[in-house]
Amino acid sequence: GGKGVVRDLKKAAQWHRKAADQGIADAQYVLGNMYVNGEGVFQDYNEAVQWFHKAADQGHASAQFNLGSMYENGEGVSQDYNEAAQWYRKATDQGNVSAQFRLAFMYGSGTGVAQDLQMAAQWCRKAADQGSADAQYTLGFMYESGEGVAQDLRKSAEWYLKAADQ
């Protein structure tokens, strides 16, 4: 909250709800997070999914990522890896780093998509280039083991060092 203002999550939830009801995607996303975390409202994954959906349908990348995560983990919805991958892909189209890394994982493991180690490496590289330490470490491993990329121990070391520098 602001300086000198008592943090009132219940009131914050009420204001975000008013804005969310007006169709404001940022408010819908924040309200979804409030329902996930039980901040100012009772924790309710079903309600969170509904708000994330409204924001995601308007192209809100973080809401798309969160919706993918809810589908991947079966929180508030039936677990559906295909649906998770589709929402992650929508978020990646907007450069969402977390979605890029999750999509890399899904391609690497064949979860929700056909296993494709080269696609896994490509998505991992996109996330690594945007500064994701997890993606940088994973890319280092991929270059070390030759999974999805040609084995290259020099590149492996470079990516491990980038991850370690964070």
What does this 3D model show about the protein?
- The protein is elongated, with a radius of gyration of 18 Å.
- The protein is built from 9 helices and no strands.
- Helix 4 packs antiparallel against helix 5 and helix 8 runs antiparallel to helix 9.
- The two termini are 29 Å apart.
- It is an all-alpha fold.
In short:
It is built from nine helices and no strands. It has 166 residues and is mainly alpha-helical.
**SS-derived structural category:** mainly alpha
How many beta strands in the DSSP annotation? 0
> Which term fits the overall shape?
elongated
List unreliable stretches of 5+ residues.
none
Secondary-structure element string: HHHHHHHHH
Number of contiguous helices: 9
Summarize the amount of helix as a percent range. Answer: 55-70%
Instruction: Kindly report the average pLDDT value.
Output: 95
Biggest sheet architecture: none
* Radius of gyration, in angstroms, nearest whole number: 18 Å
Our measurement of the CA-to-CA distance between the termini, rounded to an integer number of angstroms, reads 29 Å
Tell me the strand percentage band.
under 5%
